[in-house]
Amino acid sequence: MSASFLGSTRAASPTVIRLDRDRSAGLLPALASLVFRGLALLVAGAVHAPLLALAVTVAVTPVWLVAVGRPALAVALVVVAGLVGCSVGWVRPGWVHASRRLLVGQTVRVLVYRPRWETACLAAGATTRTGSTVHVPGLVRHTRTPHGSDELIVRMAPGQTLASWAGCADALASSLGVYSITAHAAERPGWVVLDVLRRDPLAVERTAPDPARTPRPVLPVLSGSSRGFSRTPRLIPARAGLSAPSGSAASGVVLGRDEHGHDLVLDPYSTAHAGMQGATRSGKSSACYTLLAALAHRADVIVCGVDPSGLLLDPFTTRNGGRGGAFIATGTSREDITRAADALARLVALMDDRVRELRADGLDKLTTFTASSPAIWCVMEEYPGLLAAAKAIDNEAGAKPGDRLAPKIAAHLGRLVKEGAKVGVFVLVLAQRMSADALNTDDRMNLALRITLRVDNGDAVAMLHDGLTRDRTQAVRQFAPGVALAESPGQGVRRVRMLYTDYPTYRARVAAGLAATVAAPVIRADGTPGVDVVGSVVTLPSTDADESSECAA
C-alpha cells in the first residue's frame, strides 16, 4: 500500500449520527445550513480535487470577465485556451492521459462518492448502531486507477469486519449507482479497500494478438535421448528459437483480462494442469484456440492429446508439421478409442522415463525445458464425452473388465494429472460440463488453473469453483460469450474476458508457429518415428464438435 495511504488521516474517523436529535428547525437555520454546506463543498472541492477546481476556474473566468465589462479579455482568454488545447491534443504528451485520468477521478470523487457516501452506507446497511447512535464508515481516500476503475479506502465503523463489507457490497454498488464493488483487506487493521467498477469492463470483445509478433530469444536444444530427455546442448536456428526461457517474464500466455485490468496468464512451464468448461457457443473453443496457437510458436512446448472431433488438434498432426504425433489420437470409433488409450499409455511411459531421469540426477522436478526435452501439454477435448463413448463401446462389445477402454483412459489421465507436472507433462481438460463421473475430486484438486464460461446450471460451476455464493453461481448462466470465471493459486475467483481467436486464424497461426519451429526435433515414442493416430469421426450428442467448427462469437 502506498505511503500516502498509510499516512492519510483525512476523514479517517467514522461519522456519528444521532437518531434522536431534533430535526424540526426553522427556515432560517435550514437556509444557513444549506449555505454552510455549499461553502464546505467548495472548500472540499479545492482540497480534494485541485485539478477539477482549476478546470472550473478556467471555464468560469471568461463568463466573469464578460459580466464585469471585459469581453475582449474574455475572447482573448478563450482563444489562448483553445490554441493550447489544440497544440496539446496534436502532440499528445504522456502527461495528458494522466491529467485526464486525474480530472475524471476528481470529478467523480467530488460529485458522486463524497456527496452520496453517507446516504449510500445507510441504504446498504453498511453502518453499525449503538443505542440511538449510528456509526457511518469514513471515506478516507479515493484513487482512480490506470485501468479506469476506482479504489476507495474506507475506515470501518466499530464492529465491522471484511465479511460485513463483502455481504453489503452489492447493495452499496446499487446505492452509489456503479456496476460492482469488491471488498478486500487493507494493510491497516480496521480499514477496508473497495474496488469500484462504474461500468462493466468486460462488455467489449478483445482479439488475441498474433504470437508471431512477440520476439523471443534463440533456444538451446538438447539431443540424444530416445524419449526426448537428454542433456547434450546445441543451438537451433534463430527462426525456430521462438520460446522464452522457462520461468521468464515472457514465458506466460495471456488468455484474457479480468475486471480490474489484470491479465489472466497461463505459464506453460509451471502451471500444474488446467481445466476449462463451457456450453456450446460460450467461447470455450475460442479460448483454446488462443492458448494452443501461442504454444505452437514455442520450440520447447509440444501439444498433443485426444480429440474426438479431430478439429482442435488437427493442425498439430504430423501431416501438418506437428512434432507430437505419437501422442495424438482423434475419432470416436472403437479403433479410435483404442488408439487414444494407447497414445495416453505412451505419454505415461514418457512421463515414467522422465521420472527415472530425475531420480538418477538427484532432482525432484524438471524446471528447464528445451526443444528436445519440451514441456508437453496433453489436451483432452470433451473428456466427459470421450469417456461416455468409451463406456458405450465397452458395453456394446461386452468387454471383460481388464479389456475395457474407459477405465484405461481414466487411469492414464489420473496418473498424468497426479504425477506429470513435476516432469513437465501437463494436462488441459476440456468439457461442456464437468461432472464427478468424468473427473474425480482427487484429479480436480490438481487443476491449478480453472476456467468456467457459461454453463447450464450451478452444479457445474461448483465442480471447479467451490464456495461461491448462490447469486454468483447463478450469474454464470447469463455470461456473454467469452466471459468466464477464472481461478488460479493466489488469485482467487475472478471474472475475466477471454481473448478471441476464430478457427481460420487459429489454423493459420498454428501453421506459422510449426513452420517457425521446424528445426526442433520430433518427439517419438520408443525411439520410433511418430505417426499420428487419426481415425474416423463418429458424431456424439455430448461432444463439443459444433462449438469447435462454429467459432464462439
TrEMBL record:
Residues where ATP binds: 278-285
Name of the protein in question: FtsK domain-containing protein
TM regions (residue ranges): 39-66, 72-91
Domain FtsK: 261-462
Keywords in alphabetical order: ATP-binding, Membrane, Nucleotide-binding, Transmembrane, Transmembrane helix
